[in-house]
Amino acid sequence: MQRLQTAIDRYNEIRTRFWDDDYNTLLPVGPAASDEIARLQALEPRPLPQDLEAFYRQFGGLQNWHNTESHCVQLPGPAQLADGLEHADAWQRIRSLGLADMIVYSWANDRPEFEPGRTFEQAELDALNARYRCFGWYRTDTVAESAWYLYADEDGRFGALYYDQDDFGGVRRELRAMLAANPARQTLEEALCEGVERARRAMVEWNGDGDEDENDSAA
Question: Can you tell me the distance from the alpha carbon of 163 to that of 70, in angstroms, rounded to the nearest whole number?
């Protein structure tokens, strides 16, 4: 996953334009041990995508130092996901790695739009959770009001679904479309590189350095 490492390095290089300390550094969690991956797999009824296992063994997970609100990545390691699946507190528990369940989990399990019968019937939510699994998310520039949810389909292809809390109609249309046709086309590395690039561009725009970044991109 050299392309991903290059994208991370570029993100961190540009990060130093805006902060002198380590704030917002994008860091791998560290290689996951085999028993951590096995524990997550034991809690997940379907095999983990091979790309994801390879990512866990090399990077473990991916997150920003002291930043979970904007232009950041939150891709938990397998141990953290397993802890969430086994959490005793219903408000902090990951119900499943299904896409709908993970979206709700990322909002402290409080997303009324996803209550069965409100927007989607239970059978539709079950179908979304069965066909698409989510393993984390990344944010651009809305200060924790939106996220791109990284998902895998049943064949191990990846994509990202954008959800803004002020535009539920948009995600409703996207999810209904996903019930009809599978849009996943990327490898995990392609999806992650796209996410890191989007977060990097949001970081630059957020800090008013757009012109310099355009020159950097053209170099």
Answer: 14
Q: Is pTM, for the whole model, over 0.85?
A: yes
Q: Do 162 and 169 form a contact (C-beta atoms < 8 A)? A: no
pLDDT of residue 210: 55
Residue 10, pLDDT > 90, answer yes
Half-sphere exposure of 6 (CA within 13 A, CB side): 7
DSSP characters over 80-121: HHHHHHT-SSTTT----SBHHHHHHHHTTT--GGGSTTTSS-
CB–CB of 77/60 below 8 Å? yes
Say how many CA atoms lie within 13 Å of 112 toward its Cβ: 0
User: Which tens digit of pLDDT belongs to each residue from 23-79?
Assistant: 999 999 999 999 999 999 999 999 999 999 999 999 999 999 999 999 999 999 999
Spacing of C-alpha 189 from chain mean position: 13
Q: Please state, as a whole number, how many other Cβ atoms lie within 10 Å of the Cβ of residue 148.
A: 21
